[in-house]
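Explain this protein:
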Amino acid sequence: MPTIHQLRGLEILDSRGRPTVQATCTLASGARATVSVPSGASTGAAEALELRDRDPARYRGLGCRRAVGHINGPIHDALAGRAFADQAALDQALIALDGTPNKARLGANAVLAVSLAFARAVAAERNVPLYQHFADILAGTPNAALRSLPRPTINLFSGGKHAGGQVPIQDVLVVAASAQSMDEALAMTAAVFMAAADLIRDRYAMRTLTADEGGLAPPFAGAQAMLDDAVAAIRAAGYLPGHEVALAIDVAASHFYHDGRYHLDGDALTPAQMIERIRGWLDTYPIVSVEDGLAEDDWAHWPALRAAIGGRALVLGDDLLCTNPARIRRAIHEHAADALLLKVNQIGTLSEAAEACRLARAAGWRVTVSARSGETEDDWLADLAVGWAGDQIKVGSVTQSERLAKYNRLLAIEAETGLPLVAWPAPE
C-alpha cells in the first residue's frame, strides 16, 4: 500500500495573478509528485470553501498562506507515515481531519491539492499514465478500460464575471462537431477564433484582448449580438454552422437573477420568459449545450427548462450542482438537468468528485469536465477528462499557456493511445 512520507505546500500564482495552492506528495517508495489546483471567479454558493487569508495588505486578502500552512502542518502531521489502501481511504482521512461539511477548517484548496498530489504520486509508483490511474480510481479496479477522448467546448466570446460584465451571459463556446480527432478539433476552433478576432477588429475597432479564460470580449450590445457574431465567425472560417461547428453557451444565470427575475439585456424576465428566451436561441442558433440557463436556487423551474430544451441541447448544471452528490441526487430525482459540469475543486477531493461522476453516469447524463477561470500550467485535468471518459472538456480558449497546457496534453494522450473523440454532438 502507498505510504505517505512527506507532504509540502507552496503558495503560487494562478492565471489571474492571484494566489493558489501547490502540493507535493512524497511516498515512502520515493515516488514524488506535485500538483497545482485552480480557483474560480464564477462560483456556486454550494461549493466547498476555498480558504483565503483575508489580509487586505497582501493580495487584497486573497493570499493562501493559511491553506499552505495546513498542508505543511496538520495535514502532514496527521498523514505522514500512514499507508492508504486506495484514493478513497486517503480522501476519507482528509475529510475526517477537516471535520466540516464544506472543508472550511483546512480549506478545500489545501485538501484537494493533497488529494490530487497523492493520486499523481501513486500513478508514478505504479508506473502507469495518470489518465489510466484516474480511470482505475473511478472504476475501483486496476487497468480499467479507456473509452474515448472528450470533445472540447472552447471559449470564443466571454462576458459575465470573466469579462467585466459587458454582457450578462458568461461564455459562448465553439464545438467542432464534425472533427474526428483532437488535432482536427483544435485546428478548426483556432480557425474560428482567428476569424472572430478579425471580425471584432472590423466591427468593434478592438484589438484582440482576452478575458480570464482567453475568450474575446468586445462590447456586445447584448446576448443576441454575441451569438450573431459567433455564427458569423464560423461562416467566415469556412464552416457550416450546426453541421461542422456548433455552439455551447454558459449563461451563468445566477449572476443576473434577483427579486425573482432574470435581468438580461434590459429585460426583467420571469423564469418562464427566461426559458422561452433560451428556447428562442436554440431555434435561431446551432446551440448544443446550455450551462446554468437558470439560477442555482431556482429549483422550481429547472425541470421546465429541461422539458423545454432537453433532447435538443444539454441541460448542463454547474452552479446548480457544484459537483455535489447530494445536489446531483436531487436534480436526478426532480428531472432538473441531464448533464453535469464536473469541477473537482467544487467538492474538494477526487473521491467525492468520482461519486458525482458515477451518479451522473448512472442517470444517463453527459459529463463535461471543466477547468476554472483561475488556472495554472498543470495539465492533470486533461488526464482526468480522459480517465473518467468525459463527454466534453471545457478548459477555455485556444490562447494562454494555462489553457494550452491541457490541450497539448490531450494531443499527447491522443498520439499515445489512439483513442477516438467521443461521438457528440451528432452533426445535423
Summary: The chain has a mean pLDDT of 95.
